[in-house]
Task: inverse folding
């Protein structure tokens, strides 16, 4: 930093310009320090909840977009929709735990749902834990479905 400050002093003899230059350099240096990316646990937790929100809203295209590129390469959106089905109404999910190592995160969520029981048609509401595995590829986090 001393080299930069010494070097910038050579631009102008005016104290006002030097002051502005020092202010700008301080702003850039401290600004760059704040540009670090959020921890993987935060990013993955947000993406996991967003995916379940999409499922709760029956936005299958959006939910499908969170799946790994490899999964999407061999499983069409139509096949994914058929696997999800329409018997369960997803209500939402809450992250309970995230453990990340290297480019993989294991996520535990509490999933809330509503299910119509045949043949009476009465509804059952409940929640249960669910585990997901997320992986980072090309700078993005993706869900790796078990099937």
Result:
């Amino acid at each position: 930093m001393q080299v930069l400050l010494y070097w910038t002093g050579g631009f102008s003899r005016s104290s006002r310009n030097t002051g502005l230059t020092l202010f700008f350099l301080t702003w850039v240096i401290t600004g760059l320090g704040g540009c670090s990316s959020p921890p993987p646990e935060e990013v993955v937790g947000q993406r996991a909840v967003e995916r379940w929100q999409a499922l709760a809203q029956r936005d299958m295209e959006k939910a499908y977009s969170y799946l790994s590129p490899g999964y999407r390469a061999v499983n069409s959106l139509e096949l994914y929709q058929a696997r999800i089905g329409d018997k369960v109404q997803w209500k939402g999910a809450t992250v309970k735990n995230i453990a990340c190592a290297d480019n993989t995160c294991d996520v535990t969520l509490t999933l809330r749902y509503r299910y119509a029981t045949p043949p009476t048609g009465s509804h059952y509401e409940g929640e249960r834990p669910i585990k997901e595995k997320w992986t980072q590829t090309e700078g993005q986090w993706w869900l790796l479905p078990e099937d």
The first helix runs from residue 2 to 9. The radius of gyration is 24 Å. Strands lie at 88-101, 104-117, 122-137, 140-144. Residues 1-33 have pLDDT under 50 and may be disordered.
